[in-house]
Amino acid sequence: MPIKVKDSLPAAAILEEENIFVMTEYKAMRQDIRPLKVLILNLMPTKIVTETQFLRKLSNTPLQVEVEFLQTSSYRPTHVEPSHLDTFYLTFDNIKDSKYDGMIITGAPIAHIKYEDVEYWDELCTIMEWSKTHVHCVFHSCWGAFAGLHYHYGINHFEYEQKLHGIYEHIILKPKSPLFRGFDDVFYAPHSREIGIDPNELLMIPDLEIMAMSNVAGFTMAKTVDSHDFFVLCHPEYDAETLKLEYDRDTKAGLNPPIPVNYYPDNDPTKKPIVNWRSAGQLLFSNWLNYYVYQTTPYDIRTI
């Protein structure tokens, strides 16, 4: 089954070129089936790139998924054409009375700013509070996970001396969890962040369980015991060259960034990166959609 998106969304054409099944609104209207409704709060400045990355991961399941995109109204991004936002994005006022089976809150490149000083923090808190009663299951990604843990549980982060940037090996702490069904004993995932969380803080909260760790990157995944909220600090949705683009950008800016760890063959930036996280990333989102959204959400979405 495909993901359902607006007919003219740029990501739709990109995914169709990759032979990923995308269904337009016109075709979806002819099917007598209730699709899963998934809302993506996209906080990244690279809107179209981020849309495509997450849609790619949501597409490879036997479920029809209807995706809507949400933007903040208290902050207007400057890295995307206003017409794109006006055409494809909703604001909280548009959706506050709606119910959703799933929701993804993306990361944002603002780790250096205190949460309360983020321009749209109050609005984000309103949305996260609203998600408790209007969304069946929420997937917080990278900075979105830090923000969610801070808002819901008062957990603060610490700063690394050097940016965590590269591909890292992870171990699964809950191997019988449906989240990791089909996973190998260890899996790889990209990280790109300057901050982390002490897992001991999470262990003090009975509502949380740690799902995956890395010997180098530290705490990586957790969820609530009731499986309403997932907090994922890595980037399983990243494309093959996402870390390369970040490295090239920072190098061009004269920031002298470290070479991404375990990314280039022989640690040589002139060589093509090897992708070793794609299958685990696909499984993660497919399992989240299947076992934590589709199989537990009520058929009548109004009862969420």
Give a brief rundown of this model.
This protein is of the alpha/beta class and 304 residues long. The chain is 31% helix and 25% strand.
What does this structure look like?
Helices cover 31% and strands 25% of the residues. It is built from 10 helices and 12 strands. The protein starts with a strand and ends in a 10-residue tail after the last helix. Mean pLDDT is 90; it is low at 27-32.
Detail the topology: elements first, then pairings.
Blueprint: E1 3-5, H1 10-17, E2 22-24, H2 25-28, E3 36-41, H3 47-59, E4 65-70, H4 82-88, E5 89-90, H5 92-95, E6 100-105, H6 121-134, E7 135-141, H7 143-153, E8 158-172, E9 186-196, H8 199-203, E10 208-214, E11 218-224, E12 229-232, H9 242-252, H10 278-294
Parallel strand pairs: 1-2, 1-4, 3-4, 3-6, 4-5, 6-7, 7-12
Antiparallel strand pairs: 8-9, 8-10, 10-11, 11-12
Helix pairs in contact: 1-3
Q: What are the main properties of this structure?
A:
304 residues, alpha/beta, 31% helix, globular
Number of extended strands: 12
Tell me the distance between the termini.
24 Å
Task: Report the β-strand fraction as a percent range.
Answer: 25-35%
Order of helices and strands: EHEHEHEHEHEHEHEEHEEEHH
Largest sheet: 12 strands, mixed
Tell the overall outline: globular
Our Rg estimate from Cα atoms comes to: 19 Å
